């Protein structure tokens, strides 16, 4: 028997039913089209943003045929791979001697005959801006040459044509506040250039650089440095040669010939058409490289599977409601001799029709939106698309995926419709059906097994087991959702009318409510899992972060001994250009020698100052020395953290000198410095300083209220008088100082271990010099203020430097958490809105009865709001619980790795906290459900036209 006539009738009925129920059809089409749109746009963006090998070469070479580069090893034989990235010396070749490395390589001699070339060379520089001074990179390259097209493009103005002209990238223009026609001065040689145009690098849109003609910057800078020894010479890179070869191009034989002369070549022709391994001498030396295609494919399949699951969960109830709304029509099919298979075919045909329309609409919208937002996507990815890359089979697969998803969403409603008797279909009675008792049991078992597998994978460091267990646990929760939804009906016994009806309606219509709750749960679970892991990882990084200064402060420090005479001008420069607040705190430094020309220790230089640390409990760090490893593995993470932050271990863990106080970490200051920088607002400490008693911030160095200070007085050779008075080895003195001991928490003050009064330092025979000032900032400085302050310091003689706190950058994490919350919120709102719309369509008879018995008009509106709230809130709470499983398991994996590091070094922290993202959870659990309910109530009409009920 030919099945096609039956299917043709089924498709005709499905098409007419879709046109007749335009609202429900549009809802299903939108649910299918939106994920197809997203996957299509993601595929187009990924394929277009992922540069091909040819596009990568264009980004490196422009339209040139090759780049020839010396390696710094001198003119010795090399071997390289065809890509020009991997190279080395032949096996058994001796290492080059310093004399060989010093020999220049004649790169032009290695070029193929008949070639034309451009030279490229870069140097880091400090230049003037509209706001002040900024650091950037200057590249000497004739960018107007057609050989550079595709790599550097002019966006405004003109290319530099003279040696006193320069071009800039748009990133530099935006940061510096300059515009075309302004003058840019390179500090050092103090040579000025006219900004003639702006350029962009299509492969690197965020590049911050300047471009000048060859010989316009580096050579004049070098000549100036040769004449003036106070000017540092330019630290330029070795030049590269961009080559336009003969008509045959730069061949593999040309590359091998260049390798013989010590030159590495990146050839477009060779990279795109590499020779066989038998012709590549280095091929035998290379090892296997990591290939992430398998992992990438697995991730793509996982995302696709989750998208299909979301669509099926959301679209399935819509088809179920559609089948119930059309049950009389389906009953007529059966009464006219249609078999159960033909009834199922009608419902499945509806899924195919709407799935096909949704797939086509989604693919078309994906193309349109990608083209529309292409400039924004390019700015976000930081590179221009060479072209909009379309993989036809991938796009066709995405469309087929949408079609299949529509059919899958209609599969369960089709089976149910096929089981209904003709009498039930014609009379509209649904009958009484018990929920499955097996599914919840399977769900509980799967949930327990998934949690166990995920935890086991976390403890043993297997991310595959973590992923598998997490998916299994989520599927287990899905199996339990019908029972959970059924339980909701019992919660409304003591509630007012509309929430009670909403809960009972959700429990009575589990086939409609449970999939929507599951869809919300799936979206929220993924978002909560990533948000929890991200928040926990950020908390770990915050714990391990060691600030170089007290938060909210800035330090102005003299650059060298003798520069303190310029400190007043430098202080004025900072105070006029930086967001400082309150009074400054001036400080000094101490040293033991008679003279000192640098801040760091050197032979016959500053001398040394050091504390003699007592031994015993409270003084020696228990995480160092014998038994430290056993102790570190035995104690808890909190106890390890307490020990790491204890005074005895503080200096063992933190060796950074912050703003340059030296290894002794002694500063000369007063009570204002204690209050502003140390944040020690203690009258007793201020009184001690006034009386000449030093304030010790790290109690581990004190014993019985005293510290032992050891000074080695080394006298500089330039001080002949002091050398004559003190011949021989350095004089060493040891002093017992009575100190005021600050509480333990001040041992973590960055860069300072003790604050010493000037009178005490002079009494000990130490030398004291003004060092700088501390400032309190009322906000973080902007880029413009930083540039202005550095320019003002330059005008003040450039005899001091400015430091601010190296704050942790968490902007990316915060953005990720916000995007996750928005994604889960949108899915939650969509699923709740869909369920509410289906509830209204499915419960028209009940709403008519309510109006007939005198229910106020607002009941209809409030009922929709509570129905939406029930779905959203239930899904969010279940999703939050499910999302914690993979997050906790992954943190257990991190804990295992941290413990392995601790076994190597007991000072390494194994602190791996699990931090709940309460902002994300609060947004999803409180704001989104309430917003969904309010939107549903606000968009629902309170008026209902009574109609004659069927039957």
Automatic annotation (TrEMBL):
Q: Where are the transmembrane segments?
A: 298-322, 343-373, 393-417, 438-459, 471-492, 513-533, 816-838, 868-890, 910-939
* Domain of life of the native organism: Bacteria
| UniProt keyword list | Cell membrane, Membrane, Transmembrane, Transmembrane helix
The answer to whether UniProt assigns keyword Transmembrane to this entry is yes
Protein's recorded name: FtsX-like permease family protein
Location (main, coarse): membrane
Q: Where is this region: Disordered?
A: 79-104
Q: Which InterPro entries match?
A: ABC3_permease_C, Membrane_comp_ABC_pdt
Topology versus the membrane: Multi-pass membrane protein
The UniProt entry's coiled-coil ranges are none
Cell membrane: present as a keyword of the record? Answer: yes
Q: Taxonomically, what lineage is the organism?
A: Bacteria, Bacillati, Actinomycetota, Actinomycetes, Kitasatosporales
Question: Which residues does the UniProt record annotate as the domain ABC3 transporter permease C-terminal?
Answer: 303-421
| PANTHER family in the record | BLL1001 PROTEIN, MEMBRANE COMPONENT OF PREDICTED ABC SUPERFAMILY METABOLITE UPTAKE TRANSPORTER
Q: Where in the cell is it found?
A: Cell membrane
